[in-house]
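Exam revision sheet. Question 4 asks you to relate a sequence to its structure. Input first:
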Amino acid sequence: MKKVSKISCINLAGFVLKFKVVWNGGESGWSALCPISQTESFDLHTLNIPDGAEVWIEVQALDQKKAADEHVLYDPTSGDTAIYETRKSPSGFEIKLIN
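Answer key, structure tokens:
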């Protein structure tokens, strides 16, 4: 599982969305509204996440909330970023970890 200290979400869904970081026992607040073809990010160091915790994103758009199926691990010493991408789908939108 990828170890990261930052999470980004690229909005390729064709509509405005917002997202938050989730881990067992906690979650961040919602990001700012993310316009089409833009990216929003969270620095995980600011969220009081336990070292080694599994983290993922939850996205809200079109009156739907969906959580990413693919998770990553928080490692405060990592310089890597998990990049999730949202795309339009027949059910509204889908979330995919792309790196």
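Marking note for examiners. Residues 51 and 75 are 6 Å apart (CA to CA).
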